[in-house]
Amino acid sequence: MSSKEVKAALKSAREAIRNKEYKEALKHCKAVLKQEKNNYNAWVFIGLAAAELEQPDQARAAYRKAAEIEPNQLLAWQGLANFYEKSKQTDGKGDLADVYQKLLELYESGDKQKWYDVCNKLVELYHQEKKYLEVAETWQKLIQMKEGEGAEKAELHQLWKKMIQLLKDSTQNRDNKTAQSLLTAFEHAVNSADTVPSGDHQNLYKDFIQCLSKFSHETARLEKACNDMMSLYPTETYPLEVLCLHFVQSGTLSEEALHCFSKLLEMDASSGPGIIGFGIKCLQEKKYKEAIKSLTEGLQKTSQCPAAWHYLAEAQMKIHKQRDAVLSCNQALEALGTPEGPSLQLKNLILQLKAEALIKMADVYSAEEAIKALEQIVDASSDPVVLALRGQAYLNKGLTDEASKISQELLLSHPDMAESHALEGCIHYSQKNYEQAERSFLNAIERKADTAEYHKYLGLTYWFMSDDTKKDKGKALTQFLKAAKLDSYLGSVFCYLGNYYRDIAGDKSRARGCYKKAFELDETDEESGEAAVDLSMELGDTDTALSILNEVTEKAVTGTAKWAWLHRGLYYLRTDQPSKAVADLQAALRADPKDSNCWESLGEAYLGRGSYSTALKSFRRATELNPGLVYSIYRAAAVEQILGKYDNAIATYQQILKKTEDYVPALKGLGECYLMLAKSALGNFHDRKAVGYIEQALEFFTRAAKHRPDVSCLWKLLGDTCTSVHVISPAKVNVQVLGSLLGKNPDKQMLKKSELLGLGGRCYSRALKLMPLPSIWCDLGINYYRQAEHLTAVGTDTNEINELLEKSLQCLKKAVRLDSKNHLYWNALGVVASCSAIGNYALAQHSFIKSVQAEQINVVAWTNLGVLYLATGNIEQAHEAFKIAQSLDPSYLLCWLGQAFVAEAVGSYDTMDLFRHTTELSMHTEGAKGYAHWVCSTLQDRSNRNTELYLYNIVQMNAIPAAQVVLSKYTERNPDDASAFTMLGYLNEYLHLKRQAADAYERAAVLLKNSEDTEKYNIAMQNYGRSLCALGQCDKAIEVYTSIPLTSFDGIVGIALAYFKKGLLKESTKAYEKALSVAESEQDKAHTLTALAIIEYKQNRVDAAKTLLFKCSLKEPSTESLKALCTLGLVKQDATLATAALKELLKHQKRDDNIYDRCLIASALYALQGRNAAVQREVSKAIHSNPDNASLWSLLSRVVPLYAPQKAKGGAVAGNVACELDVNLGKEVLLNIAVNQLAAGCHMSEDEKNNPLKSIQKAVHLCPDNPAAWAVLMAACHAENTLVCLNNTQPKRTGLEMTLVSTVSAKTGENNLPQNYIRTLEDWCLCQAVTSLEETGKLSEAEALCTKGLKSCPEHPALFLLLRQVQCKQLLQSHKELPDTILEELHKTVMTTSTSVAAWQANVSNEHWPSLVKEATTEALKLSSCPVAALLQALLQYHHKMGARETRRMLERVVYQPGSPETIVSVARWYLLQHLHAKDDRELIDVLIQNAKANGDARTLELNEELSASA
């Protein structure tokens, strides 16, 4: 190829490149290179084309080849530069820098602008690779080039600033050459600025100074720059701050440095470096607290100054704040980072200071940390001071051997160093070798006498060496004083000085000052703080003590400063500020929850605050923590006593006495508990129980007084206990008292009421001798009054009574004279003065008025004043006084009682209501008797039964039981009040409490037996006889009646009734005839004739009875005679007579009178007439008119299963309503409910809680003596067993038949029941038991039971029928045909019981006898609508012709007939479902399934699923 062709090819290559046809270009170039291997342009073109075709290796090689061929030609180097710039490979940056360097050489003599561009690129490349030295050198070349061209000052200034930006990160490289270049750039930039001063220039100067501050060797340059900037900008604090920090960091504290600190603070008082400098100045001047304050404040603003932190740690060590010093050292080390050069030395100093602080903290953990800190010190092993510190750390850690080894090394290597001897001394001191320690510390002091620590340890050595050295002023005291003088911040020295002055010198004031000083220096020194507080309290300086405690508690965090919280809490407890005490003691417990004494104090605080339950918990917690704290146990018992938990308190007191028999507070507490129990029992009128408590109280008070006879309150309590028997009947007071109390032998003596009251007076007198308080004078006066009251009641000599009353009056006057402002004393004086034996009503009135004046809210005095007015006949004034008392306290009983007496006096209708209200408020004898009197009076008036007053006072207010309860309590307290016992008997009769009525009437008769009023005695005996007759004690009743003359109608009728009940009908007839002769009213005569008619009926003279009853009805018929006549008709099944009598009865009875009796008779009449539906309707009609009558609901539940069994569910509901209305009917009604539920087919699978078995179980629990309940229980068990058999589950109540039969027989024998009823019940139970045994497969047992029953009662067709059924079943199970003889016997048996449904339901399963089954069930259905018979007929039809329409109709009749038991319906439903599936009648199947779901028939639903699946 010729040169022209080469040129043409190169031209074509250039054109191809221009057209981006790079492959074509490569072809042309390769063609050229075949001709000319070193063609420069061809290689350049190849490099360009290969680069564009992403062939980097070929491109680089081509450019390199071109550069080798012509190294001074630009084209290849430019191409190579472009290639590297576009390349993403990081390894090409070094080659790119070389390319840029070559281009700079080539451009230097030529194109200056391209040189600058390449230079910028090269600098950027070096900056990216952090080659700061190359950046500096290259950029300086650029600046020199600009200077050579004569560039302007502003341009050069910008270039120097650019250089600063490029090198600002180079300070971390520690390269001095680069640093110098940076500093040079700063100097040129600062000096080349156009506008000076200016903001930009100022900021540039700041950056320059900041950069200089990073180079520790540029001190002179830094000072010059700061001074130059200050001269240019005199108001700018920054250079001064940097200069101050420089002085701080370098440790230079020259005059110049101090001048800088002062000047900076003058310019900016809040400047951190300035404040730090001032702090360092204070440290030099030994103003340590000011230094700490300033350094802390300055470091908050300028925290990155390790030297300042070191200064702060030094200052903190000077005042022995070791923990703070450790924290400051840690901050210094953190700010220091990784030190080099001078900083390394500072780090060693900081670590050494930290180790010193940790060692002085003197605990194991701190010792370990100190050792770690010392290990970080560079060249620590060569520094003897550091070695001594290490020895101290080992000693603190308990490594005495290591410490001793270091000590010996130091003593050998540095015998003249004080630290060596001090370490040796500390080791001896820790080992209690005090003499060797003394020598060592003396040697240390000899070498360094100004070290307070050495003097302190020497003083401690003398303190513990012996008592002589401790007390010798020249020993311990001298050393402590020297230590305090050398170091006034060494708090522990002042603590020991306090110990010396307190324990040795006895100077509490000086000791308090030392302790206070020690605590001020070290707030963690609890011993000093506690001692300062205690001594301040002892010296009476509570303000100082409180100020210390307040200061500590304000700073304390939760769970700390226990001693301060505890001391302040105890102070508040002593000064009666319990709420504050509680808060402080709780805070103390947060610090130490297991301090039993603190819990005890907290209990006292709660007790003072009135938080008794919490106090009790606190005392119990104290006892748990320390069972030996007797006081806590005692206080817990005392709190239980306050809370009224006397039984618990007694048990706790007894627990104390087991440990300490003579612990008087526990004895006193026990006595008080029994006294309070006695008062409570007296309040509830449990007098016998109260006497027992009083006896026990006296025993414990006597034991306490025996140990402490000098305690007045014990004698007062003894007096209170003795006096408390004043309300009890003398007959009940027989109290055993320890002989020591009576001044006799130690054995117990039995005292009566009068003796006990007298003993109480003597006890009060003994208490007065010990402490003549007005309250005890008052108690003594009341005691004398109670003695006089008792003597008056038993009828003793009047002179003795008057003497006691005079003493009482004088004692109360004495109490009033001693304390005339006490309303209780005035009130007691008024009560005594107003008694009938004294009758000084003027004094009484004056006393009550003075009592009211002394205490405005004084309900007792106002009530007593009202009683005084009432007694003197001033009714209106009495009413007003009582009214005021009521307004003051509406719950105070006696003022209401007074109003009741006022109402009684004026004849008010409210009298009875007021007496009732007093019994509701509380029990009081007068109120109880008054209310009972009014209730009895109202009951005796039979004409008022329908009045609103009677309905409210008696019925609505439940007056009879209420009066009976309070009157029972009254007679307990007053057993000699005959009238009260008469009223009690009367009320008991109304409540059908026959035994209690007889006892009350007997007591009344006994009390009246020797009285002059024979009429009252005769009435009491008649009452007693009547009650005995009601009890069935007829012989005794006759004896009582015959012991008195019987002239009154009531008495004669009473003995006549007794004769009648005894069976002496002739004597009864004579008595009734005599009563008829004395009867005054027609009603009495009618009642007597009715009684005679009953006697005639008893003698089977029915016609005579009818005649007498008709005779009653002629003139003015009574309801009783008409009822008797009607009953006679019912008994004799004379419906005509019964109907006529009932009609006549309805004419004479009002609508609501005896509605139950009328309804019962009418229902019985309908039952006699065979009108079963009418029976239920009659009762339902009566309930509709009287829905609140529980007896009617009970009657309905009773008649429904007998006469309307299809409505049995309604009968069960009626029974539940009856229970809700009157719980007293529960015994009877629960039985009826169970029977109704059985009739309705209810069972446990329907409702586990409400079913026959549950109901009858409740009935049996309520009334276990009722044989009918046990019979129904048998039926319920049988029903449940039948149901579980149908459900293919195991019966749970098997084997009970014989037990229940035996129980029914036993209960019928125990109760006085009619023989017919007993026979019927036992027969039914026997048949039921046989049936149950038969159904469970126990045929032999069933047969044996039938045989046994027939032996006792051969003529028992039902039982005989069962026997034949059992025998037939046994034969049928043997798969043998029934012999004709057996069938004949069965037929005879059925015919003998043709009216029995069960007889016609014979179990003949043999297919040869379908006609016999049909005949039997048809006869059964004629007798009653029997679901079982209907089911049997349907099943017979099913087996005869399953698919017939008649089959479906008969089964549907059983399934959908309302009232049929679910067990029977379930069987019919099961067969009906099979019939419908056979017919594939989907519509009727769906109806049947819905019915099964509604009744919960799971068996039918399972069968449906099986049949559907098989279809």
Separation, N- and C-terminal Cα atoms: 106 Å
Helix content: over 70%
The averaged pLDDT comes out at 82
Cα-based radius of gyration, to the nearest Å: 60 Å
Q: How do the strands line up in the largest sheet?
A: 1-2
Q: What structural category arises from helix and sheet content?
A: mainly alpha
Low-confidence runs:
1394-1406
Largest sheet: 2 strands, antiparallel
Count of helix runs: 82
Q: What is the percentage of strand-forming residues?
A: under 5%
Characterize the overall form: flat
- Number of E strands: 2
Description:
This protein is mainly alpha-helical and 1511 residues long. 77% of the residues lie in helices and 1% in strands. It contains 82 helices and two strands. Strands 1-2 form a two-stranded antiparallel ribbon. Helix 51 packs across helix 54. The longest helix is centred in the middle third of the chain and has 21 residues, at 687-707. The radius of gyration is 60 Å and the shape is flat. Mean pLDDT is 82; it is low at 1394-1406.
